[in-house]
Design brief:
By secondary structure, this protein is mainly alpha-helical. It is 66% helix and 5% strand. The chain is built from 16 helices and seven strands. The strands form two sheets. A four-stranded mixed beta sheet has the order 2-3-7-4. A three-stranded mixed beta sheet has the order 1-5-6, with no helix packed on it.
Length: 477
């Protein structure tokens, strides 16, 4: 364990245990203080040399008797004991939850079917327990604060307790809304627009023929756009041209300009490979929720400030730990999952073509942020055409195509909105193709018949989306 890991786990334990331990410590301190005062009163009431009355030597002796209920001191002692026990129980409950999350994450690492089976129920249980802990922590903090204010400044209005409870109430509302919202509907944003069979018949034929060859589920819709990736998802896809429902395939227009049709097919086959056999369940049931949960935790962290954020600290810490433990399992299984999908690329084309497609994407994708900046910073006067970001990308790739473009790419990973991918080195090794043997062909980024020829309407999408990028910089705005 690194120093960073140790520090992170200490912060987690502090979020879970700080309030309960403070509550239990104060309750026990007050109990000992009351016992000391009682002992002093007993000593003062007994003449020197006289024995202490039986059953009244200590407060504990007094409160152990049958008539303990008639003494106010015993009522207070019982209250301190209950409060301390409740505080310790809250801390213990938090520790049990963390232990359960750790065990579930370990089980998920060993078997990906357990990952599928445990993630959603585990998220529900965690949300329920965390909501209860928010309430209990808020009550403990309120009681401690009120007791402290009464002891230090008896005349001060006790408005702090109400503020703490209000923050806790907001937290109670925020946790289920964020978590169950993530489970109900995880969305993916794509900077593009849908194309119909009439818009791009060759694209649809190629995609559906590839799905049929693989025995994979075909997409219900295809979106083309300016993102530098390809993906298939069952989650709702949000685009500037409106939402897309059902199984959606996203195809990158900039990459389509530098890929051959066969290389394009290899990448599409990889994505469709996630929708055949056992992997279909992960694509449909796990990954949308998994990514939705990541977004929900981020949204929860940004959803409040002040006392509301303070009340949410245990929730944020525990949900972060939950996601981290399952992310370890997801990354382990994702490596195997992605390599299986790469084999679908080989089935649809060949190992060499699949490898060349991977190398082109890994090598040229880092050029895209610079192209977007160039497009966004272009000042376009009225009447002048907007620069086509996709065409600028193809030109940038052509200028950069050389051995230096491949430096360090074996350690890189492709971006993806729903899955994680192993490094290029791992993927090429699994394909049985070395980088040196395909480097020259992979650097040919101006194919005679690029994959963009499958999308005749693609230029219209490129220009419309580029206009969105340029719009804030147009002259006179």
């Amino acid at each position: 364990m690194t120093a960073s890991d140790a520090s992170r786990y200490l912060r987690l334990l502090a979020c879970v245990l700080a309030v309960p331990l403070v509550g239990a410590g104060i309750a026990m301190t007050l109990r000992w203080h009351a016992a000391g005062l009682f002992a002093g009163d007993i000593a003062a009431s007994v003449a020197p040399g006289d024995p202490v009355p039986s059953g009244m030597a200590t407060l504990a002796d007094l409160c152990a008797g049958d008539d303990a209920g008639s003494y106010a001191a015993c009522d207070a002692d019982a209250g301190y004991r209950i409060f301390a026990a409740a505080s310790l129980a809250a801390g213990g409950g938090g520790l049990v939850l963390l232990g359960g999350i750790a065990l579930a994450g370990a089980a998920a690492r060993r078997d990906r079917l357990r990952l599928l089976a445990l993630f959603r129920p585990g998220l529900y249980v965690t949300a329920a327990v965390v909501t209860g802990l928010i309430v209990i922590h808020a009550l403990i903090a309120t009681v401690v604060l009120i007791g402290g204010v009464k002891a230090i400044a008896p005349g001060v209005p006790l408005i702090f307790g109400g503020a703490i409870l209000a923050g806790a109430l907001a937290g109670i509302r925020a946790v289920p809304r964020a978590v169950f919202g993530a489970v109900r509907e995880a969305r993916v944003f794509a900077f593009g627009g849908p194309v119909t069979r009439q818009d791009a018949p060759d694209l649809w034929r190629q995609v559906e023929a590839t799905a049929a060859r693989l025995g994979a589920l075909p997409p219900d819709g295809i979106v083309v756009g300016l993102d530098i990736n390809f993906f298939v998802t069952d989650a709702p896809v949000v685009t500037p041209n409106g939402p897309c429902q059902g199984r959606t395939l996203f195809c990158s227009l900039p990459l389509a300009r530098i890929l051959t049709v066969d290389e394009f097919t290899a990448i599409v086959a990889h994505e469709l490979g996630h929708f055949r056999g056992e992997d279909t369940r992960f694509s449909e049931r796990f990954y949308p929720i998994y990514r939705g949960t990541a977004g929900a935790i981020y949204g929860l962290a940004a959803s409040g400030d002040g006392l509301r954020r303070l009340a949410l600290l245990p929730a944020l810490a525990i949900f972060g730990f939950f996601f981290e433990r399952f992310a370890v399992a997801e990354r382990r299984h994702s490596r195997e999952r992605e390599l299986v999908a790469d084999r679908a690329s080989v089935e649809a084309t060949s190992a060499r073509i699949a490898a060349m497609a991977l190398v082109k994407v890994h090598a040229c994708a880092p050029l895209w942020p610079g192209v977007l900046d160039e497009t966004a910073n272009t000042i376009v006067r009225d009447g002048e055409p907007v620069p086509n970001a996709s065409a600028l990308f193809a030109a940038a790739a052509a200028r950069a195509a050389g051995p230096a473009l491949l430096d360090g790419i074996l350690a890189t990973h492709t971006e993806h909105p729903t899955d994680t991918h192993p490094s290029l080195a791992v993927r090429l090794e699994a394909l049985g193709v070395g980088l040196p043997e395909i480097a020259a062909e992979a650097l040919q980024v101006g194919p005679a018949t690029p994959a963009s020829s499958l999308v005749p309407i693609g230029v219209r999408h490129e220009e419309a989306l580029s206009m969105v990028v340029v719009a804030p910089r147009r002259e006179g705005r």
